Amino acid sequence: MSSASLPSIVDRSNESIAANKEKAELIRAACETRDIRSLIELANSADGLLADSLRRTAWPILLGCPTEQTESESWRSLPPHREEEQVAKDVNRAFVHYPKESDRQLDRRKEELSDVIVEVLRRHPALCYFQGYHDIVQVLYLVLGAQAAPAAATRLSLLRIRDFMLPTLDAAISHLELLPSLLRAVDPQLYSHLPRIQPHYALGATLTLFSHVVEEYGDITRLFDFFLANDTVVPVYAFAAILLSRREELLELDEDEGDAVFFVVLGKLPKPFDVEVHVKSTLELYQKAPPESLRSWSWWKISSSSVLKATRTPYDVAKMSIADGETLFQRQSRDLRIQQACRSSLLITRRLRLQVWRHRRPGAIGLAIAVGIFALWLGKGRGSTGMEFYKTILGVFV
């Protein structure tokens, strides 16, 4: 390198420092006025919210945390949550990649992380813990600290990742089912090349907001800037954008490879992981093909109480209360029970039709379908009563 090129490098470095200082002032100003629109624009621009010192104020605003926390009963006196044993096991495996601290320091962090998670679960016992939740809360804890993290984790849980904390993972799977529809819309060739396997290969990333699969602390905090400032479906779009960035690699895979090979390959993140490139491509993909434009049943079948619809944007999240989130949780749980009852009804009807055909008893099929419809209606208001009634009737025919 010639000495003549050194001044230009220094100049660019000074310009970058000056630009970051100016951006930091803009972030502080947006935080002071709780200007969500400006925070979104800043989080979506290069390098996001820049530093943890700024994120400590900005993230709670994007999550709609109140400026003053009300005094409440100590969580330690509340009944234990049913998943606390699993929480302890998972927290014991936390802090693998970051921070680089002594064992004693990490043990202290594990205690504090456990306290944050258990406080959220004890105060909101309906929430169902899932493995990987500790990865998400770990990021919140490291940025916000042990005192501020519980409030942020509570709002995140009830208003942004509520679908993942229901009694089953059905709602989480419905997020993943948008992936094939999205790929088909924007890259039919790649979509046709990939096998028709369930997109569960993306579960580890989308379920944990990428915190389980991204190893660099600076990268995951940058991604959290981006995710918290955008629609709740954006993690799915981020995974799709990553697949599209690997297009040539994926097209080179032999279509005769087994599903297991595709599953492993599709689930990997590229290395090195250029977070700014992926943030930019995700924004472009979302603007090009928002979910309602996909013309896919995978979008329209999603419950209106899902985070993908009811608390879709940061503006929706910010204006909702914790009580609103709990109400949506109960509604979505009900919707899932109805969907499960429908699936069970269809399976039993198919079984009954097969049995009737074998025994050649005309007229029984129509009766079975009528009974199924009545059972479904009965089950809506009385839990499993309708399905139990249907199974009893089924026993008469078989």
User: Could you give the count of β-strands?
Assistant: 0
The CATH superfamily of the domain at 166-320 is identified as Ypt/Rab-GAP domain of gyp1p, domain 3
What name does CATH use for the topology of the domain at 166-320?
Cyclin A, domain 1
Mind describing the biggest β-sheet?
none
Distance between the termini: 85 Å
Looking at the overall shape, the CATH architecture of the domain at 166-320 is Orthogonal Bundle
Annotation field: number of helices = 21
> Could you tell me the radius of gyration in angstroms?
25 Å
User: Which bin fits the share of residues in helices?
Assistant: 55-70%
What would CATH call the class of the domain at 166-320?
Answer: Mainly Alpha
pLDDT < 50 stretches: 378-398
Describe the protein in words:
The chain has about 400 residues and is mostly helical. Among the domains are: about 165-320, Cyclin A, domain 1, CATH 1.10.472.80; about 330-395. The model is unreliable at about 380-398 (pLDDT under 50). The chain has 21 helices and no strands. Keywords: GTPase activation, Membrane, Transmembrane, Transmembrane helix.
Lay out the secondary structure.
Elements (H helix, E strand, L loop, with lengths): L5 H27 L3 H9 L7 H11 L21 H8 L11 H21 L9 H12 L4 H11 L10 H7 L1 H9 L1 H6 L9 H4 L10 H12 L5 H12 L1 H5 L7 H8 L8 H14 L8 H4 L13 H6 L2 H38 L4 H18 L3 H13 L1
Task: Give the tags.
single chain; 398 residues; mainly alpha; Cyclin A, domain 1; 21 helices; 64% helix; globular; disordered C terminus; Rab-GAP-TBC_dom; transmembrane helix; GTPase activation; transmembrane; GTPase activator activity
